[in-house]
Design goal:
The chain is α/β, with parallel strands linked by helices and 306 residues long. The strands form four sheets. A seven-stranded mixed sheet has the order 6-5-4-3-2-1-18. Strand 3, helix 1 and strand 4 form a beta-alpha-beta unit. Helix 9 packs across helix 10. The longest helix is centred in the C-terminal third of the chain and has 11 residues. The radius of gyration is 21 Å and the shape is globular. It starts with a strand and ends in a 5-residue tail after the last strand. The mean pLDDT is 96.
């Protein structure tokens, strides 16, 4: 049975608090795991959340500020210590190559796992296509080069029982039709398109430190689950603009305009203690879909397909 969920390892921006660890998010996508922005303490949070090094297939770093990357050294060494049996690929801004190398080789350890480096440059684009998803990146607006990531499942087809019955197709014939695209039935050819409809693939996006920009809008467009920073409350919008961040209201309006189904707000400044303020401002900004104000060690399941 496939599992598609986000495991939140940390939600703090810049400085961890008593209740918020630095950033860290694992997306479980069927049999793969993609670790986003492993901040300081991520390895410890993985243990608390029941996430193993073996669960990680890709690591995606949005940018090289410490709250998004200082945990990389420990995660890389844990992957090697546990002798993860599959290759792991790391995506990160190419401009931060020196930071990645310093974190990868922060201390001495024995390398036992193939860790492929696949940096992102320019405006981003398609990073990889697999049978399960396409992974894309888009450049964001932050004082240092930053990228957001987006996962897109290929569209499939949903079989329509009434049309199958009308054409007399049943049992093993349904599987043959799905595999071959057409089936001879009572002297005529029945095509897959006649007895099915397009089933839109699921979409997930991860948008961290950024001002409002075209890249953030592109990443969020049509997402089933959007994880997005909301460092500041709306009354501190001047600070958000100055430091390259979003407010709760800005993030919510972006999500509403993009048709997001489930919005996850995270990356909160230590100046705020009450998470309900973020929810209140997101609703006031007009977002009407499912809304989660992230907390450390929670899991968020992707919505069912439309």
């Amino acid at each position: 049975m496939s599992v598609r969920e986000l495991v939140v390892l940390g939600t703090a921006s810049q400085v961890p608090t008593r209740h918020r660890n630095h950033n860290g998010y694992l997306l479980r996508w069927d049999g793969e795991g993609i670790l986003f922005d492993p901040g300081e303490g991520t390895q410890r949070q993985m243990v608390r959340a029941g996430v193993a090094a073996h669960d990680i297939n890709r690591i995606c770093v949005t940018h090289f500020h410490g709250d998004h990357s200082l945990g990389l050294a420990g995660v890389v060494q844990r992957i090697n210590l546990d002798r993860v049996p599959h290759p792991v690929t790391a995506h990160y801004p190419a401009s931060g190559q020196r930071f990645f190398e310093r974190l990868r080789y922060a201390t001495a350890y024995r390398e036992t796992v193939s860790l492929a480096e696949a940096p992102v440059a320019g405006e981003g684009g398609v990073l990889v296509r697999t049978a399960a998803y396409t992974l894309e990146a888009r450049r964001l607006s932050h004082p240092v080069e930053s990228y957001g990531y987006r996962l897109i499942e290929p569209d499939g087809r949903r079989m329509l029982p009434d049309r199958l019955v009308a054409h007399g197709i049943r049992g093993p014939e349904i599987g043959r039709l799905q595999q071959e695209g057409a089936l001879e039935r009572e002297g005529r050819t029945v095509t897959l398109e006649e007895v099915s409809e397009v089933r839109r693939g699921q979409r997930f996006a991860f948008v961290m430190d950024t001002r409002l920009c075209e890249g953030a809008h592109d990443l969020a467009q049509g997402c089933d689950l959007l994880v997005i920073e909301s460092t500041f409350l709306d009354e501190d919008e001047p600070l958000a603009v100055e430091y390259g961040h979003l407010t709760a209201g800005q993030a919510a309006r972006l999500a509403a305009e993009a048709g997001v189904r489930h919005l996850v707000l995270t990356h909160f400044s230590q100046r705020y203690g009450d998470p309900t303020d973020f929810e209140r401002q997101a609703r006031a900004a007009g977002f009407e879909g499912e809304l989660t104000v992230a907390q450390d060690l929670m899991s968020v399941v992707l919505p069912k397909r439309r």
